[in-house]
Amino acid sequence: MNVALLKRPSALIPIAMSLAALGLVLGHATIYGIVHEADEGAAAHIFQILMLIQVPIVGYFLFKWLRREPGAALRVLALQLVAAAAAFASVYFLT
Hints:
81% of the residues lie in helices and 0% in strands. It is mainly α. The protein has one domain. Helix 2 (9-32) runs parallel beside helix 4. The longest helix has 25 residues, at 70-94. The protein is elongated.
């Protein structure tokens, strides 16, 4: 994998945000347990914001790097998608 491309902020920020969302979910489940609440709490809203803000950043990354380095850009995109899927899977399995 082209490590230089992975060091770009537009590649690294979505991965970091997905990992932060994953940590948020796991931390909330660790502290409060798995509780089915009628109303979403602050942690749920922060998770939603973190995941939503990634969309334009990933779009910018693809717009900028897909033409220049398609192979490396697709590998970084796959890593971004795996990180996002891990965050969503944690919500799915813990609720």
